[in-house]
Amino acid sequence: MNINLICLPFAGGSAAVYRDWVDFVAPYINVIPLEYAGRGKRFIEPLYENFESCIEDLYNIVIKHIENNENFALFGHSMGAHIAYELTLKLKTDNVIPKHLFISSRVPPHLSHINYSSLTKEQFLLKLEKMGGTQKEFFKNKELIDIYLPIIRNDFRILEEYLITNHTVRSDGVMCNTSGFFGKEENIFEEMQEWKQYIDKEYNVFKMQGNHFYLNIDKENLINLINLILSD
């Protein structure tokens, strides 16, 4: 049975981060990376005003990929994990339930604390560099910074605003089996376990090799796990 694996990038990321997953997934999995507005093929589109407009936009795209009742799963990394979670709840109101939800390297909303909006440009770039996942050449290239920094900062802004207004455990739980992934260097095992409060079905956590961007380091093992989970 074929299944669409709909993938949500991290803050500042684009659909391109998932482009080589097709080389690793099982034959029955169709990888569908979603592109956020304002980057990649959607570069000319305006950035999201808020998290709600982001969810509404991506919801309309997801619906098109499952309009013929295709089986599907959602995978979201970092900011993408919150987006995948919110999309799952929005789809639930239509009685549309994913086969599986994959939450990657993001603790649940009630434990999330970020405060990047008040940082200066230099402070933000320093935080971004320490976080990893961005090529070192980026920080040396003024032209790239001028193009992409507003995109990255906007993503962090809407995420920060979302977390401020969603800082309690929701009562409407996710109605599909869910898996959490994180890099062992993040040291967030206990925090990832807290997603159980948001899930009404089975929930398991997997520790991967690497840091917050373990999916670049331990990609093959990650996708092997996804293949196994979706084969049930």
From TrEMBL:
Its EC number is 1.1.-.-. It comes from Lysinibacillus sphaericus. Pfam families: Thioesterase (PF00975). GO terms for molecular function: oxidoreductase activity. It is an enzyme of class 1 (oxidoreductase). Keywords: Oxidoreductase. This is NrsA. SUPFAM superfamilies: alpha/beta-Hydrolases (SSF53474). Belongs to the thioesterase family. PANTHER family: S-ACYL FATTY ACID SYNTHASE THIOESTERASE, MEDIUM CHAIN, THIOESTERASE. GO terms for biological process: lipid biosynthetic process. Residues 5-227 form the Thioesterase domain. Transmembrane segments: none annotated. InterPro entries: AB_hydrolase_fold (IPR029058), TEII (IPR012223), Thioesterase (IPR001031).
